[in-house]
């Protein structure tokens, strides 16, 4: 931690700050520049919690030197993690495809979709049984009935199933039916939900919040991991910017940035990122080329009648065509479909 | 609802779209331009849910004409609402000041603060007993003990008390102790929490999400109201932008925009918006001048030792000085401290 | 300047960095933490230009301690500046109102508007003779003829006149007709234009770029000032964010932030910030309450027929009504109309 | 053009609006919904310029149906354009690589770099002779001497050369030395410069503004094209968002979005987008996979001593290694290095 003093900070002010640091058994390194004085703090800086040195007289600003996330941090766990879900390994060497409809609508829809996406190369069936919708008057999901359909599709096909959870109650239900929990963008900083997901023991796919920084996202992962559950996969799904041509702006740079900061796998969701079916294929290829460990893609037996997110869903034929196009990119990136 | 067809849309495509509309007992108004054809839909457009006309052949885009929120909508409730909390009226003619520390830390802190902010003109004591923190290793709040301290401060001073709730569990606890619930920015689209807050029957202060549009915010209010609880107050607390000089960017235009769209009261939180103590006074004045119904301001007996958000908190003296400065602005705006 | 080394930086890497610093006659202050080593650099850091220490082995990041703008910096010029234009003083104690149409359209329009805004309290007539328009097919301005009309209006009323310049050529023309140049948002980082405006010797109103940080804005002011022209006034006119309810998002916090960083006056433009006439009055009051030195407001004799920006323009009556409302806010802020 | 009336618009208001439309020889299509009335306008809507119907009584909003750019619009020019520069074709089937230092520093630097990037597969040498820098105290470029060095490097290697121009004066100079002009992000809406670049007749690389929407960008291209110069190539270089892990956020979705709206080629600049050398390779691969027609990449003989942008520059070896990695992605995308 580095404390930068104001140009006009008095000696008294500098002394007072260094006193606080030393009183908390930390070491001080003082640099006096010709314009400003800088105070380096050496030792466990959590001892300064609640001291609020930012507002002490003469202090200009404080710069943190180390990240607040530890378990998710590559510095303390340099090797890439592999997250095992059923017989699927998410991580280096594999390209994991999660596909399915935005919302679970019926048993037939899930069963049909499961067979279709499996045939095309997916290893996960996705589907929303609890839908966070902007308006209370939009379709809110089939809830436990939807989970039941997912489980049946899983038993019939051997696919892993993943479902978004939006409350403690939903987690309690979901653990009985699914292989992996999903925390959606709107709940990325619903810390109570993160803790419950951590306690569940199930692997968790953590989507990035609409306007979350990468560091906030890794801190959200830390919430799950600090409950003893290290099976976390990150999912970039577009961030909110001023540009309205796409529903969100896919931050593809997040892939190499995360690689440099965390050992957790990262997958991309081009369907939610763009909201436009025609943009899914080019961005899915780009995701693989950028180094992603997998993709989440919306597929629907009949997008023209989907209850939610139809415009961005692929038909079965389009999805099969897509995975065929993706295979050579995956090989080139040294990954095989898992 | 207006459907704009692509320039090259075939007659067949236009016919198919109009057929879907008519099959759902809605009326069609067709405008053929020299470049494009436009299809107006007249009637209850919820009948088209799940038809996904956006992806029908030949459709370019669909423009909504009416808002999805109804109970919060000024069009259907043109008079400004007054939200009554205890003996305080939030709304036209009043300027409601909510003040207190970011986090409840001790009985003494709350009691001392309550007397100080009451004396200076506040009608609400704020305080966080459940703290949503970016890192799991930061202080998380005193929980029920904190609520107990708030209740004691309320009994001693007659102030209303308001506390953020972050889970169904927290709501269950909070209803026993506080006068008003607060939903924080990170939970603005935690729809399960919104519904529970709606069911609680207590008045709710709904903070704007970090990157929520004004329409998403009003839809979040609609979630609470659609549970039968119309006692909602909106709180602008800064949005996330590229500018880093302030913690967030206070969107002061939200005040007149909300006035034109909703009958619900709106208050501003300059403390969280800026994160800098010196900016609180100018922005508090600006908020009143822009037409806000109230202010939420962080006050702490000893900001230099606050466990959370010290740099933006005012001391008791600073707060008293601030309210003295605000009174003439409040009078000019036709409001009296409530 | 502070150099933060990576946790695993070798002694060799640390030595190499300190060597570069010392080779350039700067002093090194080394702080060895238990996780990282920090190297403080003392002395004139411009000597390190082109050394690119950011990419030296073992370097994690570099933190600047001082701002790159000097002439605009409050640290080296603590007193608020007053910019004199004709008989008008822009700065402490004054509230300067600049009003007029977005675009100069005709002699009658300018003359009529000049008398109307003068009567209502403005001291500047604004008007665009060179219009930067998103589409090449939109009206581009009357150019020198427009400047001529402005000058005539100035002679008839005694108002100061201000006009946006968009090229070196426009500056050459404008200096013959107007009292103050305006650099628009789209040209805030058109550095050649800034230098020319600096050389012109005329006072300059520098609008903030659409997505410029406050520090970039102050550096743009520095471009003008470093040509020997210190007569710069800053104008906040809204920044680009994800919110679409207003054309831009007025960053009202910029007023107190600028106060803490620069001695230059700052005015606000609520017309361009919102693009909506009904929002101009509440935001103009807010601007004064926040401490602004003035306002720029669009006024048009017949907004329903304006060639540009009609929807946000006020009629003469509306403007007169507005200034009447603003006077008590101005008094309260300790300012008189200038 | 569609005019949406307010729910309470009077018949008189509706009549007045339709009258204005008909008075301008346009046709009206009226749709009366149960909540609102919608007025479709059929015909050449430029006739309504300056009528400002947005603020007519009873009007809620106006929705544009067609884009304002025509020459750049795919609707009127459905085939992908190929831009020929010397013996290089930018467009379908080709992958054009432009490489070189951010700033021209010396004859040796340019000559050495030219040979190195040519050997690795580039067909363009880039280099900045006129540098737009945030601070007036940063290195501003070698100007005409720099152009001279570029021309010498071009003659020695046969590479095309491209240089950013920042003023009319710079264009006058550059046309004598270079094959293609570059308009930088900060000048994307410097409309005078765009017009001059159009008049120059040289092919133009138009970088996207820091916070320009895709439609604003295409309108900027239209400025160049409307001067009779249709040789425009677009370059995505990252947009400004709240995320600070990368210098800008590369909007890779811009590639498929542009493909659907314009016939102009698009290239990506991963160096400026991220500002971090380690992120260049993954994003360059992603750009090709997403369908880009080329790449602009910073290469420097000695990045540790570059006068500008060292941290994101590749060494010659790194660049050669990169192009070797890119070739199979290029083949997979059906493109050959040009």
Largest binding interface between chains: A-B, 48 and 48 residues
Give the count of helical stretches of chain A.
Answer: 10
- β-sheet strand percentage of chain A: 15-25%
- Major sheet attributes of chain A: 8 strands, parallel, barrel
Q: Round the mean pLDDT of chain A to the nearest integer and report it.
A: 92
Q: Oligomeric status of the shown chains?
A: homotetramer
Structure explained in plain terms:
4 copies of one chain form a homotetramer. Chain A has 338 residues and is α/β, with parallel strands linked by helices. Helices cover 33% and strands 19% of the residues of chain A. An 8-stranded parallel beta barrel of chain A has the order 7-8-9-10-11-12-13-14, surrounded by 6 helices. The longest helix of chain A has 17 residues, at 316-332. The radius of gyration of chain A is 23 Å and the shape is elongated. The two termini of chain A are 43 Å apart. At the A-B interface, helix 4, helix 5 and helix 6 of A face helix 4, helix 5 and helix 6 of B.
Question: What is the compact description of this entry?
Answer:
The structure is a homotetramer of 338-residue chains. Chain A contains ten helices and 15 strands.
Topology:
The structure is a homotetramer of 338-residue chains.
Chain A: E1 2-5, H1 11-23, E2 27-32, E3 37-42, E4 59-63, E5 83-85, E6 88-90, E7 94-100, H2 107-120, E8 124-126, H3 144-157, E9 160-164, H4 168-174, E10 180-183, H5 191-200, E11 204-207, H6 214-225, E12 232-236, H7 254-261, E13 266-268, H8 270-274, H9 280-290, E14 294-298, H10 316-332, E15 336-337
Parallel strand pairs in A: 7-8, 7-14, 7-15, 8-9, 9-10, 10-11, 11-12, 12-13, 13-14
Antiparallel strand pairs in A: 1-3, 1-4, 2-3, 5-6
Helix pairs in contact in A: 2-3, 2-10, 5-6, 9-10
